[in-house]
Amino acid sequence: MAYTEIAVERRGAVAWLFHDRPEMRNAESSVLLDELDAALREAAADDEVRVIVIGGRGDHFSAGHDLKEGQEKRQGFSVEQRYAYEERRYLEYSLRIWDCPKPTIACVQGACIAGGFMVANMCDMIVASEDAFFADPVCKTLAASAVEVLMHPFVMGLRAAKEFLFTGRRMGAEEALRLGMVNRVVKRPELEAATQKLAEDIASAPPFAIKLTKRSLNRAADMQGFRDAINAHFDTHQLAHVTEEFRRTREAGLAAAIARGKAQTAV
Ligand code: ZN
Asked: What is the pTM of this model?
């Protein structure tokens, strides 16, 4: 399949799927997310592929959902239409990454914000470069309740997640490493090689044992409430989309964001 907004490369037993809109800081349009989901399924079904890496071309992993596209195409959506759109592209696609039977690694440099943060954190592991930074400013700046998939308490701990979401601040790679959200931090020029090395190490393990181990680890998370919490938050997030607070904040914020030419960043 030919893709227009992602790039796919095979490096040995490792499939690399890149966000490929560097001029837009890899903003996730509906096309990009559809392509990423299709490429993930393709890689999962390919017997030659042992590990899947999700990355981003250019200076950033992804600055989040393509807000400009959202403004143009989905501004007039009903509650039902928004629910269907977000359920498919954000909740289902995210959980497909989480549930992928093969190990997944996010390879993160530069901005990893909101929707980008969501995709990266669905991966089993994250390798980040020193310049990587993470943020979910959706509560603070848009008055919605975080991004659609609230994996935050599971990947960074409850206290850190509260501060991160209540302030909307950026978290650097070293802090993310300290909190255990990121597996390792390397210098920017070494990022892809370090990620490939980790992937090859995993690719050399017996694949069925790896698959079973991942299932068990994910089930442990489910027993701690992961899936129920994720599904509950998705509905809460939909409620936040129809509040007066959201409408007022979004209108003011979006106008300012568009004026700054940075409309691609956020919810
Ligand atoms: Zn949303």
From this structure: 0.94
